[in-house]
Give the backbone structure.
Amino acid sequence: MFVYVIRRLLTAIPTLFVIVTMAFFLIRIAPGGPFNQERGLSPEIKANLEAQFGLGDPLWLQYVNYLKNLLHGNFGPSYNLPDFTVTELFAKGLPISIQLGFSALALALFVGGILGIVAALNQNKLGDYSVIALATAGSTIPTFVIAPVIQLLFGLTWKLLPIGGWGDGALINKIGPILTLSLPQIAIVARLMRGSMIESLRSNHIRTARALGLSDWSVVVKHALRGAVLPIVSYAGPAAAALLTGSIIVETIFAIPGVGRYFVDAALNRDYTLVMGTVVVIALFTIAFNLIVDILYAFFDPRVRYD
Amino acid sequence: MLKNMLKATVFATTLALATGAVSMPAFAEVVFNRGNSADPESLDPHKTSTVYEAHILRDLFFGLVMQDQGANLIPGAAESWTVSDDGKVYTFKLRQGATWSDGSPVTAEDFVYSFRRLEDPATGAEYASMLYPIVNAEEVNTGKAKLEDMGVKAVDASTLEVTLKAPTPYFLEMLTHQAAYPVNKAAIEKLGADWIKPGNLVSNGAFTLAEFVPNDHIKLLKNPKFYDAANVKVDVVNYIPTEDRSTAIKRFEAGELDSNDDIPTEQMADLKTKFGDQLRVGAQLGTYYYAMKWDKEPWTNLQLRKAISMAIDRDFIAEKVWQNSMLPSYTMVPPGIEGYTPIAADYADKTQIDREDEAAKILKELGYGPDKPLKMEIRYNTSENHKNTAVAIQEQLKPLGVEVSLVNTDTKTHYGFLEQKGDYDTARVGWIADYKDPETFLGVARKASGNNYSVYNNPKFEEAMDKAAAAGGKPEERMKDMQEAERIVLEDTGFIPILYYSYKNLVSSKLKGFDENVMDVHPTRFISKVE
């Protein structure tokens, strides 16, 4: 197992390298640059700016310099927010996105999991249909609709939650964004859980367990759940990578200072260093969570072994 | 005994809390939560350019001259000034006893340092051109002269002498721009790039920087060392970036924001009903126009350009597309600059029907028709309203047999393309005044201007502009020359003015001193908040 993890981590290095290289050149293909804006700059002023950020150098040299800096953990300054380095922007924003994303994921796994089990145990009965209806609704209503509705109801009408803002991390400011992030996830998890649970309940070892006279609780929780949870685990890995790195929609609507918005804003602003920073962060999260999923697989399914 | 004292304290605290609702406001600090359409790129005044950045920097820094709540020019760090008879030498007397937020005195040397820093190529200042009227400023910025050669000199600690290349009547107005604000040399030399961070930033304005959490808030505190601190009513200003306009409206409604500098224009009518006087919309110094590629066939034909301009129904666009959040425009220079009456295009007084008839006639004479349709491409940067404007124009030109195609790109691509004078027919451009003078709008059309996206070039226009510049010392004559220049550029129809910008502020009725003005300038030092 240990060897396996080390091997996986080592293969991550060339993967990252390829991703970084592709991203570096792809963003440069986009027309315009970080200093094109409504108010044009004279060629001299633009040259001054570009010189300051080393953008006047040939592209290959910029690439080599970028890689060098990256190896030292230096993502460079943000072009469009020069008061901050890319590292500083992530240091401030990433913990916020992780908090919200992790809470939303945990909530989704818990609530969605329970709903899925309830549906599976009541297959083709009222409970099942209610969950399916809820899940369908939850996964089809987009977040940019859910978020304003939450703001309108909980913020303006009932005055229970603030409309937006981070409020230095006050719990009350997190409820809206977490709910919005988790609702679609709850729907997906519930549906996955229902499907795999039904399948698991029909399997031979469950029939055996029931025949042995084990209690319903024991059959469901100890035996059926363990097999049923695998599809959830494989879904939760990539979902976690996506959730923890922030959502532009939720962050923009709730005015949350996370990193989700950088993925889009940086690209639109041709903020090359920030684009690269986000690419590296997402890549790292994706690689890490895929590895975690594989390890969890071995834990839940005794047939899976990594040697 | 101790127990009793504890009891008494608890009792007193409870009492204080209970009565707090009544007595608190007198002691509570005044917090102004100010919605701002975006975060600043930087808080370094030499590295910014936009209106939403200017709001914050105007609170933090104190230039030689400043603007009051009506955008009128008032003394700032300079108490008074004199201008030499030839209009070239400005001598500023600095305010006695004025200090930076760290207590050190604000000296003429600080301004020498700051003006030089703005022009220093190493700074990479976007708005270095704001001080180009100063002797050798442009030369320094383009690496053709040394910093020391700039026409700015500290005569003594409190006297600053600035020498201009030519009389520039709008020079004082230019000095109100953030690019001309002073920065603290000692802090920059000691801290390098970190000088701008909260806790490090030394400024000389009515407020000081306390916190900057990107995409969340910028917190400023009242500066007790500010010369007029006694009259500053707000203790804390939180600049809150409100990228999502709809959320901003809800936050304003819920009282989380006291003001916001923009609204979702498509909701204009509803907002008017909901907020009444709290929604303030009015003309701002800014023009929204289409630049026609002057040197590209068939647009080299004056009559053709004119026909296109006449066929555009500006009233419809302002009313239907922009919900009256923009106003129809027929001039390059918007109204609202004292001493200057803009010159409108000659067809401005005609009815839209007459204009369309005339346009149809021109197109017919030029041989365009169903067999030979005129093709025109409109380029615009991503925005729902820019798109709708282009679509409206497409529809308006269709009956005349003009086939309009639309090209939408993101902002960086759009301006990157225009800057390289790419192959386009017409492109959407917006221009907001940097200072209150017609020059800021007409200068765009000059041959040498980097913003001349029309590639417009008429020696007569250049001549009129040069004449205006030469008449620097005589304001009336100068304005007449400017009018002549505007008449020429409009007659040539290289730029098609379509709309005037307007400010769209949501201002809580609790705020006083947030006065409406054409520059949309609202220094917090003049604002007060009553509960």
User: Anything to note?
Assistant: Chain A touches chain B through 52 residues (CB under 8 Å). Residues 94-300 of chain A form a domain with the MetI-like fold fold (CATH 1.10.3720.10).
